[in-house]
Amino acid sequence: MAGRRARAGRGWDASPPRTGDTTTPDPHRAGDDVPRPYRDGDDTPHPRRAGDDAGRLRPRRGRRSHADAADPEAPATPPRDEAEVAREICLRQLAVRPRTRAELAGALAKRGISEEVSAQVLDRYDEVGIIDDAAFARAWVTSRHTGRGLARRALANELRQRGVDGDIAQEVLGELDEETEAETARALVERKLRTARGEPDAVFRRLVGMLARKGYPPGVAIRAVKDALAAQSAEAAEFAEQIDADALAASEGELDRDARLVD
User: Fold this and answer.
1) Are 164 and 137 in contact (CB under 8 A)?
2) Could you give the 3-state DSSP secondary structure of residue 42?
3) Mean pLDDT score of the chain, rounded to an integer?
4) Among residues 169, 237, 180, 157, which one has the least CA distance to residue 203?
5) How far apart are CA 85 and CA 124, in angstroms?
6) Which has the closest alpha carbon to 228: 262, 184, 263, 260?
7) Among 40, 138, 171, 207, which residue's Cβ finds the most Cβ atoms within 10 Å?
8) What would the pLDDT profile of 157-178 be if each residue is shown by its tens digit?
9) The overall pTM is greater than 0.85
């Protein structure tokens, strides 16, 4: 009976405190029978901790547990086909602007695509017309000559840098005749003369140098500048009459020096 009364005064079935007794057991005081979240032999969680424990034990949605991640039987992502990767690289390059076969081959090599796979993909693109170095060269020459006023010599250098075959480049550049090249040079000089300042001889050197940097031969550059100066003013015309275009054109060293002058 004493044991039962002692047990009845504490624990889960403890009687409520008597009226007027405001003493609250100190849970930190030694000897108090403070309920634990889990008692021996009782798997019922403490009411205060039920939500906390449940939230802590619940796995997060959308994430794999460490056990699943380390599962050797989990399906692994299959490696991508090298040819598929090569095709994607080429299409991304071609989406920016047209490319030559050499440019695409260089891009594939930088990404680690083998030469065998690269050749297979590029050969197929050649067959279906996605790669056409001749069409590329024609479009490049038309755009750069019309937009930048580049002559055949400068255009040939740009095509070579982009891997266009020499025979293809020669054939395409042959479509740009000497008369068209001379007309373009004269138009460039006339446009520059509108804002040119300085003595006629200084203006002459700057304009010849400008045409030389754009790839015009010495004879074409000198004659274009001389004719434009002759039509500008009386002073410029007098200076132009003194110019021996043939003699200057024959002096390659002097023309190269003028080409380095600031435009």
Assistant:
1) yes
2) strand
3) 76
4) 237
5) 15
6) 184
7) 207
8) 999 999 999 999 999 999 998 9
9) no
Token pair in block for residue 183: 């007309």
**Is there a domain that residue 29 lies in?**
no
Could you tell me the residue range of the domain that residue 251 belongs to?
Answer: 178-263
Q: Of all helices (H) and strands (E), which one includes residue 228?
A: helix 218-230
At 208, list the tokens. 């010849």
Tokens of 252: 């390659």
Q: Give φ, ψ of 111 to 5 degrees.
A: -90, 5
Q: How confident is the model at residue 55 (pLDDT cuts 50, 70, 90)?
A: very low
Residue 169 covered by a domain: yes
Q: What is the DSSP string of 77-127?
A: PPPPPHHHHHHHHHHHHHHHS---HHHHHHHHHHTT--HHHHHHHHHHHHH
Q: How many domains does the chain have?
A: 3
User: Which tokens sit at 177?
Assistant: 């005749």
